[in-house]
Amino acid sequence: xxxxxxxxxxxxxxxxxVVAIVMISLVIAMYETYAExxxxxxxxxxxxxxxxxxxxxxxxxxxxxxxxxxxxxxPNTSNKLLFILGPCLAMLTAMMTSAVIPWGSALHFKMFxxxxxxxxxxxxxxxxxxxxxGVVSLGVYGxxxxxxxxxxxxxxxxxxxxxxxxxxxxLAMGLSxxxxxxxxxxxxxxxxxxxxxTQGVWNIVYQPLGFLIxxxxxxxxxxxxxxxxxxxxxxxxxxxHQEYSSMKLGFYLFAEYINxxxxxxVMATLFFGGYDIPFFDEAAHIASxxxxxxxxxxGFVFLIKIAxxxxxxxxxxxxxxRFRYDQLMxxxxxxxxxxxxxxxxxxxxxxxLKQNHWHF
Length: 360
Hints:
Blueprint: H1 3-43, H2 59-69, H3 80-96, E1 107-111, E2 114-118, H4 128-149, H5 153-184, H6 189-199, H7 203-206, H8 208-221, H9 233-236, H10 246-271, H11 282-289, H12 291-317, H13 325-355
Antiparallel strand pairs: 1-2
């Protein structure tokens, strides 16, 4: 088998994996809208969507069809190129973050007559967390460009709010992860999962405060209630995407739900063992069941963890009222950043004590 053939097989595997992840992300984002409306209805003692299909299960498809069929409107006074680029950039950055997340253990099957072990991860790079932070920081431009290019003062104000909010909370989020990296010693997402599997204890046990800071910052990064100041309808009409219609609006709305999905995946990976199944001997079951069934099971368990965090996002939205903008910024700068620094110092001290065998 030539080296060129092996390269083509590897490229085919990665392309199939990328297509699968993109399709799954889009389907999950679609049905997150359905789940959100059902969760809201349950909390408010209502029924929720129940007309399109049994139990309203086809409602996301009806919403998607509505967005596709709506008239495309581009304001005359807008910057047309940037107006189109904004939602495209928001959607692209939302999807790119999924590349370094390990979605399960390795599949085993034959392709072109070759036995292959295919890892359910597009790219296992040794700076996976830095990659996610870099791509997420680019997502600010999607919001900022969309709000500015609209040539609408309400859109611009909302975009400024969203950008300053995301930049502020990225600091506390990054500091909370530095404490985690002191324990793991690696920026690779797969290595972090494997460490948790090897030691049999998830990182949430060692970093409860770091996780709390991270999840609060994740709410702010995703522009979710109680931090949805960029979409405060009662203050700014409709937020940074006020002038958008049809699928451009759909891209912005989809990007928010995909960000929520990816944020949940990152939290599950870093703090809750990723695709690790508690009290499950993966090696023994691979020997008896085979690699592929175990990989599919680990991927399914990972999706269950993600679904739990998505539910938390929705639960908080329909439970807690929105912050004022000054409260939002005070929480980020005066509370979360000092807490993250304290957590980092304590973690560093404990790591140092452990390295010195707990002796002063």
